[in-house]
Amino acid sequence: MRTTTNYFLVNLSISDLLMSLFNCVFNFTYMLDSHWPFGSIYCTINNFVANVSVAASVFTLVAITLDRYMAIVRPLKHRMSRRKARIALVIIWAASALLAIPCLLYSTTMSRYRNGQTKTVCYMRWPDGHYPKSVSEHVYNLIFLLVTYLGPVVAMAICYTLMGRELWGSKSIGEQTQRQLDNIKSKRKVVRMFITVITIFAICWLPYHGYFIYVFHNKSVAVSSYVPHLYLSFYWLAMSNAMVNPIIYYWMNNRFRVYFRRIICLCCCVKTSLHPELQSRPNNRLVRSELLLRSKSCKPQG
User: Fold this and answer.
1) Which tens digits make up the pLDDT trace of 206-236?
2) CB burial class (10 A; 0-12, 13-18, 19+) of residue 157?
3) Where is the G-protein coupled receptors family 1 profile domain positioned along the sequence (predicted)?
């Protein structure tokens, strides 16, 4: 699993997991009741983690695309080493955190009395006001749109078009060996998987980004009764991207599927190996040998 692509794939899974754990449930609760019960500190954490995880996910997809592009279109060029991949991951998270700094500076809560109830809202209070009147927030949304959506999607579309032309369009002179054919087939499967990931990403996030741009230029829409429900549907479409990606990896990546099953199997082996009689009088050598035998039985055959 220690290839550059798998380093990035694990990082992509981590960013998706952060979004799922720290944002989805909390924001769903907030939007259903229009009330933020989690406090001002978590309001800041929630907004910061959301933007960091989205940016890290997109930047990782770009890194994967560039790595695949060099491997397929320019195979004779110097490939990315594992050390450089780790450095790239540090840069990805640093850039993502830098992009999300306004969330740390301006996220806050405010209580207001409406329809006989006190409701708390979690929002970003910019120096020139709040959404949708704040020009600063509009500029930030445009920058975020450009850096985490439009720019990456266009760049990745160009790269995968060139990769597709190389893998499916080019004709090699003479006969190819079975090893070469298997290598091309393997590369095609990886490219198909990431094209699927990027396409679903573009579809999931387009309505969400478009909503903020449209409402800023049509402020009367923001007070309409149907807008909260519309925003909720756009938001959950965007958040679903983090939940769909692992399914795509499992469905389209054989290695991911094999290692996922092995991890699950090993976890089950550890639980079942700790019998009560072993816990009352532990024998370390016996436990280790039993775990070793069970872990070997969990390995995929063939």
Assistant:
1) 998 888 888 877 777 766 767 777 887 888 8
2) middle
3) 1-249
